[in-house]
Amino acid sequence: MPGVSADQVKLAREVDLLSYLQANEPQELKPSAPGEYRTVTHGSLVISNGKWIWNRGGIGGRSALDYLVKVRGMGFVDAVETVLGSRAAPVSFSLPVEKAKTQQTRKAFELPPPTRFPAHALSYLQGRGISAKVIEQCLWDGTIYESRDKGKSVCVFVGKDESGVARFAHMRGIYEKYHRDADGSDKRFSFSIPAQNPDSHHLAVFEAPIDALSHATLQHRDGWRWDGHRLSLGGTSPVALISFLGRNPQIKRITLHLDNDAAGLIAARKIKAQLAGDNQFRRIRVSINPPRGAKDYNEALLRAVSMEREQKQKHRRKADIFI
């Protein structure tokens, strides 16, 4: 596997979640019964008898590695390096010096360096139909900018925590098919567009940042009277959504705008059922509303732009005939 060896993966899987948290995040643990713990961040996650189960997410496991990937939304390579770099590994482990050095030098999250002028990113976003007003606001907020990654020009979508600190960055290729999360990104803080009213009770959820931007653009184009938060999941995992709701307890209405395909529709139904089955979120009204006649909201936006362009061309031709 790129970035980690089979031996490293095997060693990481031997570290149980309780040992990992006791060594690295003891503040996350709270005893709930004899020999049983829950976590502060995820109250429905129970650790007992060497295993853990996240009732809210409907998943479970034994290792800290599974927890970091399935619950925290961490990339697999980052998760392996995080576990092996922790003090949770049993003392019987004897790692080669080369591996120990790799663990010590593993980089924490850091935003990719911005280019001086975001001309290519602007051209890319405008080519996807995103309005200048939406782009300008995101540039001003620092949630979108241009960078280079592995020699490729990329548009960077940034996710921040409640203090405004960047914790997540997704890079999308401008001229070629390329996308990945920056090393150390915390998917709990995925890309989002806040409502004008921070206390808004509404949340719209999408798979990708470009779809959230497209939805905002359609609102400006069509004059929708709606003020809500927009959140990108960075896929179909509910990790970012659960974390967002924990930080925004005022949310009362969620609209799932996941892709209009089998994967998106199935994921939306699972998320709706998951929220309905959790006492903490049962009060929230959740609806599934994929874009009509399009795979995703960017495709819906591009169709609207194309239809508007065709209408303008027809009007011009009619005007030329009368002249």
Describe the structure.
This protein is α+β, with helices and mostly antiparallel strands. It folds into two domains: 99 residues, Alpha-Beta Complex (DNA Primase, Chain A); 191 residues, 3-Layer(aba) Sandwich (Dna Topoisomerase Vi A Subunit, Chain: A, domain 2), CATH 3.40.1360.10. Strands 1-2-3-4-5 form a five-stranded antiparallel β-sheet, covered by helices on one side. It has a five-stranded mixed β-sheet with strand order 10-12-11-13-14, sandwiched between helices. About 7% of the residues have low confidence.
Characteristics of this structure?
323 residues, 2 domains, 5-stranded mixed beta sheet, DNA Primase, Chain A, globular, Dna Topoisomerase Vi A Subunit, Chain: A, domain 2, alpha+beta
Précis, in short:
With 323 residues, this protein is an alpha+beta fold. The protein has helices at 6-13, 17-24, 64-70, 76-84, 97-104, 119-127, 132-141, 209-222, 239-247, 262-276, 297-322; strands at 29-33, 36-39, 45-48, 51-54, 59-61, 144-149, 152-160, 166-173, 179-181, 192-193, 202-206, 229-232, 253-256, 285-288. The protein folds into 2 domains: 6-104, Alpha-Beta Complex (DNA Primase, Chain A), CATH 3.90.580; 119-309, Dna Topoisomerase Vi A Subunit, Chain: A, domain 2 (3-Layer(aba) Sandwich), CATH 3.40.1360.
